[in-house]
Every structure is written in C-alpha cells, then in structure tokens.
Amino acid sequence: MGVTWAGTHSFRASRLVEPTTVEEVQEAVRTAPGRVKAIGTRHSFNDLADTDGTLISVLGLQGRPFIDLTDPTHPTVTAPAGIRYGELGAWLQQRGWALHNTGALPHISVAGATSTGTHGSGVRNGCQSTALCRVEFVDARGKLRTVRSTDHELAAVAVGLGAFGILVEASLSIQPTYDVRQDVYTGMPWEVLLAEAPEILADAYSVSIFTTWTEPTVQQVWRKSGMWLDDAVPDEWRGAVRSPGSDARLTTKDPDALTPQGDPGPWNERLPHFRYSGPHAAGEEIQSEYFVPMHAASEAIEAVRAIGETVRPHLIVSELRAVAADELWLSAAYGRDTLAINFTWTRHPGQVSAVLPEIERALAPFGARPHWGKWHAFDAHAIRHVHPRLDDARAVFESLDPEGRFSNTHLEQLGIREARGLA
Ligand SMILES: Cc1cc2nc3c(=O)[nH]c(=O)nc-3n(C[C@H](O)[C@H](O)[C@H](O)COP(=O)(O)OP(=O)(O)OC[C@H]3O[C@@H](n4cnc5c(N)ncnc54)[C@H](O)[C@@H]3O)c2cc1C
Known about the structure:
Blueprint (H helix, E strand, L loop, with lengths): L14 E3 L4 H10 L4 E4 L14 E4 L8 E3 L7 E5 L4 H10 L2 E2 L11 H6 L16 E7 L5 E5 L5 H4 L8 E8 L1 E2 L2 E8 L1 E2 H12 L4 E6 L5 E2 L1 E7 L9 E2 L2 E3 L22 E2 L18 E9 L3 H10 L1 H4 L3 E9 L14 E9 L2 H15 L5 E2 L9 H7 L3 H11 L8 H5 L10
Parallel strand pairs: 1-3, 2-3
Antiparallel strand pairs: 4-5, 5-9, 6-10, 7-8, 7-9, 11-15, 11-17, 11-18, 12-14, 13-15, 13-20, 16-17, 19-21, 19-22, 20-21
This protein binds flavin-adenine dinucleotide.
Flavin-adenine dinucleotide binds next to β2, α3 and β9.
C-alpha cells in the first residue's frame, strides 16, 4: 500500500482504490467491506490518513475547475477535490485570479491540505481551509452530499481530517491575481525577534522566520511582499540585512527547487517556498508543528530557545509563521491569531519522538495545538484541553457517519471520533 511521502508511515490498509469519476467513488464506498478513508498526496507525516480497510484516492478524479462570478462580491472557483495547489494556482493565474495564500509546497492536494488546516503565513491570512465555501462529499452510504458556508456543518467539515466522508469537489473563495516579491534577510538579532515577533510577522503580506534556535543571530527571515500593498523592501530591516542570492537552502539541498527571490512575480510562484515545476525532493524528513496565540509569540519563542540544545541535534530547521484567527472548529487557529512553530527534523524517528514531549512541555503554558498532519505526542485528553469545539466537531462527524466507516485508530485515539474498540 506504500508509505507517506516522507516514508514516515507504512500504510496498513488492505486495498487502494483510485476512482476517476464521482460515481466510481460512490461505488467504492458502497461496496468496500468495512472501513474506508480518503487519501490525498500522502504529505502528512503520521497515520492520520490510514485505515484498516480501503483507501480511496481522489487524485485521479476527472474534471476541470470553473470560476463562478454569479455573486460579483464573492467570486469562487470549483475544482475536483484532489487537484494539487500547483495545478489550481497556475490555472487561476492564467485567468487573472488567485487564492489568498498557499502552504510551502504546491504539490499537496486541496482536499488533503484543507482537511488538516494547512496554512502559509501572513497575519491577515487564514489557513487554506478558510477559503472553502462549499464542499461536495460522498457519505458512508455512498450518497453525494453538499455542505455550504450557510450550513453550520461547514465549521466542522472544513478541517475535517477525512473523518466524515470523501471530498470530491471543493469551492474556494478567490480574488483578482496579485504579484509578490520574495526577499531573504539575514542577521536579525535575537533581542529584536524576541521583542518584536508579532510586528515582524506583520511587516509584509507573508513572512517566514527560519532558525535552528542556537545560532548567534536568527538564521533567515523571508519577506513575501505584496506588490499592491506597496510593502517596502528595505536593505536593512529590524537589524537584519537584505541578502540577495543568499543561500536559501534551508529545507532542501537543491536551490533550484525553491521559488525565485528578488523579482516580483505571480502569487502562485512566490507564496509557496517550493516550485511546482521544479524537482520535487523525496521525503527523508519528519515535521512537527505547534500553534500558540500570537500575543504570546515572544514568550513561546523564548521557551523553545531555552531548550535549543535539546532540539538542535536532529533538527534541519524551524520555521515560524503567522496564521489569522478563524471560526473552523478543528483549525489550529480557531479563535486566536496564531504563531505557528514548525520543526523539520532529520528522519530519525526514535530521537524525534523523544524530543517532542520536551517541546510540548515548554509550549504547554501557551495552550499549544499540534498540526494534525505532523508528528506530535498529544493524546485525547491533551487535544480536548486545547480544542474547545472538539465535541461539536465530533458530534457532526458522528451524525454524518454513525457507523464510523471513516473513523480510524488515529481519530479514535485523539477523541475526534468515538472509540469503537478497533485494534
Ligand atoms: C514538504 C512538506 C511541506 C509541507 N508544508 C506545509 C505547510 O506549509 N503548511 C502546513 O500547514 N502543512 C504543511 N505540510 C503538511 C501538509 O500540508 C498536510 O499534512 C496535508 O494534510 C497534506 O495533504 P495531502 O493531500 O498529502 O493529504 P494526506 O496526507 O494524504 O491526507 C491528510 C488528511 O486529509 C484527508 N483527506 C485527503 N483527501 C481527502 C478527501 N478527498 N476527502 C476527505 N479527506 C481527505 C485524509 O483522510 C487525512 O486525514 C507539509 C508537508 C510536507 C511533506
């Protein structure tokens, strides 16, 4: 059945079905014995997408996106749910439209990314799931159902973890296209970051801060400036200097894999860190990510820095980003403007597992929430403590799928679906 993109989990499912039509998805759900679970591009790092039954991939679903301008104040694009951001982004850009943001990697599917609350950066940018205004999915009986922004269920299903059905189509809010310019800064003093973290993250449309926690000055800050916002591109900025052509090989050994610096360009070719057309590195990494309230950003950064020597040995790099508050019940930014603290680790599972509880202890005072698709050590009790709408989301999942066909061990262990005594 294969492994996750990063090789961090071997799927236990007994069968993989790859439908090309919605009717085939319905048929697959109807006829599969036992449990089923949707799988996207396999970029999650844990067993969230696994099942003891049948995996259903929507990546091959046929269909073209289409733009709906019926309500001129709320343009949308509707696309097959398995489409990758890189493909959808290029399609929109060719027609003069854009999404509000992207994650780092454009190879990830819309269905999988929105299902885990995947995010980019920007203090005014909600996670990718906040763009969802309508989803069409196949339910446990193989019936096609629609949830719209006017339905209360959208707050549960937008970050739905594949816990209630198989998304086959998604409608997303769009906006006129825009250009972004990406610049790398080096040498920001730690005192500046610790004193001004929220302001630094708010200084351009999308800002990413890269660190290994123990270096004398903050390793790099990437500013993705909105050209329509007249975001300044200063040579010196908050104690850091613009370093054109600086070695931005933080998360890849191949600089050609990264989106261009310096020249302004379309949003879909600057907001992701990685090019869609470029070489797509194989995994060989593990990621973990924790979300804390932005108002506690400086203290949270200080808390991780205090255990920097413990974190450093198996870390490739950490990335700090901003995510705007939203109303999606299982979003990591639910109800609070958020600082996201990501850890990209070398693929040393034992050592990484050992350090995660230390990080979680350090971030517990800030009510840190883990990324659903990445490695963490939270159990049901800890998840419930930080996700105030967990019970509401579970109630929606249970009502849409009373027999638990879309449940799995992972969801049960975290209390997202009711425990049904699975092995
Ligand atoms: C190199 C790399 C970079 C990353 N960068 C970021 C980043 O910048 N920001 C961030 O937040 N995360 C990031 N991630 C994490 C990634 O975005 C999430 O794990 C995301 O869920 C992966 O989407 P996927 O299509 O691979 O889904 P999968 O990993 O295949 O599945 C994830 C979940 O989505 C569900 N799902 C998939 N398809 C459907 C469907 N059709 N219907 C219902 N449920 C479905 C699955 O059941 C599962 O629960 C990154 C991961 C990697 C490997």
